[in-house]
C-alpha cells in the first residue's frame, strides 16, 4: 500500500490548488462565480479522485485515475478559456498551466504503471 511519501501526485495537486486559490480571489466578479467556481470544483474533484485511487483496490484504481485524467483535461481547457477571456494574465496562466501539465504527466505515468 502506498503512503504519502511515494504518492507525490497529491502534493503536486495540492500545490496547484493553492496557486489557483490565490488567483481565484482576484478574478473579475462575473468570472469568479461562473468559470472560476467550475475550475475550483474540478480541482477539488481531481484531488478527491486521486485520494480515492490511492486507497482503492488495483482493479478500481484504473477507473478512478482515468476519471481524474479526464477531469484534468477539462480543467486545462477551462483554464485556457479563462486566459482567453483575459481573466488570467500570461504569467499566472503559464504558472498554472505548467503545474497542470506536470500533474497530467504524473497521472499518465500512474495509468501506464497500473496497465502493465
UniProtKB/TrEMBL annotation:
Q: Which residues form a coiled coil?
A: none
- The residues covered by the bAvd-like domain are 23-113
InterPro entries listed in its UniProt record = 23S_rRNA_IVS_sf (IPR036583), bAvd (IPR055360)
For this protein, the record's CDD domains field holds: Avd_like
**Superkingdom of source:** Bacteria
Q: What is this protein called?
A: bAvd-like domain-containing protein
Amino acid at each position: 500500500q502506498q503512503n504519502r511519501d511515494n504518492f507525490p501526485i497529491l502534493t503536486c495537486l495540492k500545490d496547484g490548488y493553492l496557486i489557483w486559490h490565490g488567483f481565484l480571489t482576484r478574478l473579475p466578479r462575473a468570472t469568479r462565480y461562473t468559470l472560476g467556481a467550475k475550475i475550483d470544483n474540478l480541482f477539488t474533484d481531481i484531488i478527491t479522485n486521486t485520494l480515492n485511487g490511492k486507497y482503492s483496490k488495483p482493479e478500481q484504481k484504473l477507473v478512478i485515475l482515468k476519471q481524474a485524467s479526464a477531469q484534468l483535461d477539462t480543467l486545462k481547457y477551462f483554464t485556457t478559456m479563462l486566459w482567453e477571456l483575459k481573466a488570467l494574465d500570461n504569467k499566472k496562466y503559464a504558472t498554472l498551466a505548467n503545474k497542470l501539465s506536470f500533474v497530467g504527466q504524473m497521472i499518465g505515468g500512474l495509468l501506464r504503471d497500473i496497465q502493465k
